[in-house]
Every structure is written in C-alpha cells, then in structure tokens.
Design goal:
heterotrimer; A mainly alpha; B mainly alpha; C alpha/beta; A: mainly alpha; ABC transporter involved in vitamin B12 uptake, BtuC; 1% strand; disordered C terminus; C: alpha/beta; Rossmann fold; 6-stranded mixed sheet; 5-stranded antiparallel sheet; 9 helices; globular
Chain lengths: 314, 325, 252
Amino acid sequence: MTARRRAVTLATLAVLALVPPVAGALNQGFYVDLATRVVIFAIAALSLDIILGYGGMISFGHAAFLGIGSYAVGISVTLGLTNGFAHFGLAAGASAVVALVIGVVSLRTSGATFIMITLAFAQMIYFFCESLSQFGGDNGLAIPTHSDFGRLIDLDNPATLYYFALAWLVAALLFGNRLVDSRFGMVIRAAKSNERRMAALGFPVFRYRLLAFVISGAMCGIAGALLANQTEFLSPAIMHWTRSGEIMMMVILGGRGTLIGPVIGAAIYLVLENVLSGLTEHWQVILGSILVAVVLLSRPGLLRGLIARRPARA
Amino acid sequence: MPHEADEVGGGGSAADRVMHASLLLEQLLNGVQFAMTLFLMAAGLTLIFGIMNLINLAHGSLYMIGAYVAASSYAAWHSVLAALALAIGATIVVGIVLEVGIFRALYDRDHLDQVLATFGLILFFNEAVRMIWGATALYAAVPRFLAGQVELLPGIPYPVYRLAIIGVGLAVALFLYLLVGHTRIGALIRAGASNRTMIGALGINIGLLYTLIFGLGAGLAALSGAMAGPIFTVESGMGDDFLILAFVVIVIGGIGSIRGSFIAALLVGIADAVGRAFLRPLLALAVSQSAADSAGPALASLLIYALMAAILFFRPRGLFPPRTR
Amino acid sequence: MPDPLLETRELRKRFGGSLATDSVSITLDPGELHAVIGPNGAGKTTLVAQLAGELAPDHGAVLFAGDDVTAEPPHRRAARGLIRSFQVTSVFPDFTALDNVAMAVLSREGGFHFWRPARRDPALRDPARARLAECGLDTRADVLAGALSHGERRALELAMALAARPRALLLDEPLAGMGPEDSARMIRLLATLKGQLGILLIEHDMDAVFALADRVTVLADGRVIATGAPETVRRDPIARAAYLGEEALASC
C-alpha cells in the first residue's frame, strides 16, 4: 500500500470511528444509523473492488451475496437459531458456496457475456427468494431478534452494532490490502493486465479468479448478515439488480482498484442519497443527473486521482 | 417480471385444465406475444450494443416513455394513430437528445463508465415520469377496435389485441430483415455489427449513422412500450426488469444479430409462458395452492435465467453471433 | 535415443479452403537451436499457435518430452516447461519491468499465498533482477513496461521467458523491429543459452538464423520443404526458390 493510500485509509477510519460520539453530542442518533449503513455497503463495495478493480471481473450480481447473507440470518432466526457465530458463519459459507457455483459457470466467459451472466444469476437468486413465501416472499419478513453473541456484544445497542460493523470493515481493509499485494493478488492483477501472457507463463488463471470470486462473495455475505441486523427486515429487494448497480457505482465513484476508494464511494453515495431525499421528494432526478455528470466530467474515478499516484502503479 | 394488469381474456390456472390443448395454445400464443414485445426491445439493443459497443441501461427508460406517452395520448384523444405517432416520435426525440448529448461521449469509454452513466439516467427518468404523470400507475386502455376476442379455432377464443401485437412484431421483423439485408444502410449496419472500425475507414459519416441507429432503437423500444401498456402496468420502473430480459435475449441470440434476437426472444417468451402455465399447477401438486401461486411466477422467471446460463455455458457468444470482428 | 524435447507429428490445420499447416512433422532436441524460417504466409504463426496450445490442430499430435500434449491448454504446456515469447510484444504494461519478470519467476511456484507482500520478496526479486541483467535491462528495472522502447520490450519478453525456467523455448520472431545493437545483444544472449535448453526459433533475420542455428527448417505454404544443417539448407535449390529466392528475384 502506498503511503498516500495508507494516510487516506487511516483518516477515513478515524472519521468513521468518531461518528457515535459526535452523533451523541449533537443528539442525532440517526447519524449512527446512516453511518452503519455506510459501513455495511463499504464492505460490500470493497469486496467488489477486489474482483472488479483489481481483477477486472465486472460482476453485476454482487447484491445477491448481500441477500444471501441477509437471508442466512433471517431464515436462521425464523427457524429458531439465534447464535451470532452461526449466523455469520452461515452467511459467509453460503455466499462462498453460491459464489463458487456462479464462478464456475461465469468465469468461462468474459466481457459483456460475463456481465450478463452474473446479472442473470443474481436475478435467479432474487426470484428464488421472492418465491419463498414462508420467509416473506415478495413482501419481506421482519427479523425479531439480532444475532446473539452473548454478553460479549449486544447488537440491540445501535452504537455497539455500529462498532461491530466497523470492526468488520477494518478487518476487510486489512485482509483486502494484504490480499492484493500478496502473490495471489499479483496473479489476479496481472491476469487483468494481460490474461494471455499469464496463460503463456503457466498460470491456471481460471482457478485463481474463481478463488478470488469466492473470497469476494463471502466478504459480501458478511456485509449481508450485518445488514439484516441493522434493518431487522428481510426482503428480496436487497438483491435486485439495481442494488448491484448501486454497489458498482460506489466502487466507480470512489475509485476502483484502491480498496479505500469504494469505502469513500459508499459514503458519498449514501450520504448524497440521504441529503437529496431530504431536500425534495424528486431527489432521484438530481442524483441521476449527478451520476451522469460525474462520469462525463471525470476520468477513472472521482477520487482515484487523489488516492492513487499517477501513472497508475501496479 | 412485469405484472400483467388485466388478463386481457384467457388465463385461468385450475389444475384440471392444465392438460387442455386450448390452454396450451393460449399460453403459447401469450408466449409469442411476449416474445414480440421483447424482440422490439432486443432488436434495438443488439444493434446499439453490437455496433456502438454501448451498454445502455436506459433503453428500458425509452420503453417506459413510449408506454406513458401512448397511454396518456390515447386516453386524451382516443386515436391509435396519434398515440403511436406521439409515443414513437417523443421517444425518438428523447433518444436523439441523449445520443448527441451524452452517449457520444460514452462510446469510447469503458463499459463500467457506460453502466454508471446510464444507471444515472434510469434514476433520472424513473423520477421524471413520476413528476410528470404522478406516482400511481397509469391505466392504458385497449383501443376499441382491438378489444374483444376472436375464435382461432372452434371453442378457442383469443384476445384480438394480443394477436395484433404478434402481427406488429412479425411486421417489424420483416421490415428489419428487409432493411438490414437489402438496403445500403442495412449493409452498413451489418458491416458495423461485425467490424466497427472498418466502417469508419470507409469514410461513412459515423456520427450520423450512430444517431440513426440509436433513433431506430428508440423508436422500436417506444413501440414495444406503447403496445405493452394495456397488458403490463404502466408505472415508473416498468422498463428496468424488462430491460434485463432484453439483455438476456440479445446475449442468447448473439450480440449484433437481429435474427439471433428474434429467435432468442421466441425462446425466452415461450419458455416463460410454458413455465408460468405449467409450473403453478405442477407445484400445486406438491405444495399448497397459495404457495404455488406465489412461487410459480417467480420460479418461472428463474427458469429463464437458468436457460440463459445453460446456453451461455455452451455457447458463450450466443446462438447466432455475427461473423467475428 | 532420448525423446525429442518438442515434436509435432503430421500436424494439419485447415482454414476455410486452404491448409495453413500441411502434415508438418518437426522435432526439437534437447540443447539444440532449431530455426524455422519461411516467407510471409508460410504458416509459421499458425504453427506456433498449435505448438503453444492456443489453436487446436485438425489432425496430428504435439508432444513435449514424450508426452502427448495436443489436448492441453497453453497454461498446462507452459507449466511443463514449454515457454514461448510473442511476436507482438505481450507484457504487463502497467507493471514495472522488474514486476513483469517477477511474475515469470512466480509462475514456477505453486500454491496460493494470500498474506505476504510479493513485490518486496527477495525470492522473486533477485532472480528477476538477474534475468533483467542478462538481457541488458538492469538499469530499467523500475520503469513501467509500457514506457519502455520497442527494443527494450522485446528484451523484456525474452527475460520473462527465461525467468520461467524453460525446458524448451518457443521464440516467435524475437528480433522483430529491433535495431542492430539490440539485435546483436540478443543474438549473443541466445548463443550463450544454446546447449542449456532447446530453442525453437521462428525468425526472419537470416544473419541471426545462420549464426545461431544447429538446424534449419524451411516452411512454405504450410509445408516443410527443407530441413537440415544451415549450410545444407542455404544451398538447397528448392529452399532458395521458395524463400531465399524471393530476395534473389527482388535483387535481379
């Protein structure tokens, strides 16, 4: 990690860590709520950046893993299982398995076909969950209790939930940064740069990409489990393809291939959405226009130029 | 999956009728009709993606604009011609404005940037139609002279309107076949679909060609939306899921191939109809009727995507990819 | 007699109406430098693609060290030690020259390592630097590959190929587009490699070919029309007519 990225990362984490005390001082408990949402989507966006920004795999179905993670918690609670470790283990595990299946089929394709096939899988999962009438189907289902970690962590408390999620974000950043600079990460990044070359050197690129895809999916599944705890509601809407688009936008807004960029992108997107929807009920017109303008007026990512040195170092 | 507003004749899912040939024929025709609306979307999309290499998520918004303009025009003046003309005209205008103002800058950008920008357009238009027409769904009436049913075979009634849609779809398919296969513009389109850089080298005014193609795509999307209005709900966001299905169709058919999108649309439409017809009663045998009622349509949609995944697994470039670039 | 390192048997590939590869049977023995020459359109590129595994032949077999690899994809052949360089330079433009070669060094390791930073690992950097030095690029190690000159990038291609510890090297026109100084350096380097591994050299540069080759094969219209020691082939009238004859006619 470059010095600049490290500085940005630490600064961002410092700001995030201060949200609950600041919110408390301003008597705006809502900020903690919003910040929790930001942190959760930051993890999701970060997980996507690993395969998209570093690996060049444009997966348009990442919201499916958010959904699987959520449903792992929701279904468990409905069936009487409240143990937090079980919830998060199931969330990551189920997401990993689904990512494996999707990856085995999709990673044989590339380009636009890959985008569409990942999208298709996400839609499949969306419709499947919509058909689960005993878990709410189309309307969704309230989740009566939080994941139970005993007296260690009481997720009923919003501030605790927030720091719990933030801890996961820190772990994700730490792991992600190690991953992309490791031998494994170098293979993924080189394969993005020149796949043909990698094959000519003897690397089984498919295997590496599949593993990266699985890791990314599991990470996003964790974000889903956190989301279920935060919203206390289970709904297939969380994995609609437009959600995948939003996550992708957070990655692009913040600057792909930087890990911390998508975290900031998540913050920008969700805060913007929040501020605008407070200003007018027609906020989507404004948000949409802003997105178009951002793309037309800037190159790679809004913040990538600030976070990454130029020319882009590997 | 768009929800059907009123069952324009036909329908019914009592388990004992599942084996009737009349129901099967009806469902097949529904599938073909759905396929025709899909084809109109897909044809434009495949050209735009194949020739301009542009992922345009806002194509569904053009469909939506067509539906809204047609529905409200018909409600005001009760003239099918006026409704269609206005719907197609307005959408083409919007499309051309978008093309000149925004998409021209996107052709050279990578797919991610195109996704982001067109996603922004979806948000924009979804809200814009709410601002203009309100948040509640619009009622789109079936034109009077197309209302009612006709007996295809003794004892098998079928809505005239749906037959009209099938007719229009086939007519457009024929028109496109003639256009692409037998005109100079068509030759340019075919060349562009298989080798984009080549047509530039031929000295053709690329900008104008692209704008024309985009306009054609917009018009087709508007026609699709206008006709779909009475069958599916005219509401904000109606184009989003339909767009994904159209993308599925063009990927299955082969990007850049109109013939491919026609056949793929038929595949998807019929698979969808058959799925809906048979999945619910089949499920009802295993689970409760209410569970089958809610699970059936969702699983039918799931089947479509499973079909696409299977086809792409064996033919990553689709069924009829244009000869390589 | 030991197996040839690389061997094709009756390789055939048809494109549309014509045979791009017509019953080509050639061998590469361990330690020899075998040059394949031929006019444009002779089918050299198609042959290389079939040797590397990017193209499946219609008929015939490709063997590596006695094993039939005809059905194996490129990465499996490379893992066995059949390493190629590309005619059109194919490197990692957004990586430094050092990182490029380090990737080639890495290709010989197995397993998945997720934690330790790779770039600063001496186990990767040291061999990479050594290969760069051999190819005259030691001063350019920290330059992005995309910023290197054409000749430097060709040298980088070779450095990467060498770093992958090949048993057999498949070099596709390594001297293409190189100036005289760079060419001379590369020819000297290839000369030092002779004997250590098998090299199949596809080349147009006749000076290099006749300076380096132990054996020369002439390809024309997809067929082998002459093969043998360099001097023998140079004097072979059929070979001259098909290939060298082009230049002779041009100079008339």
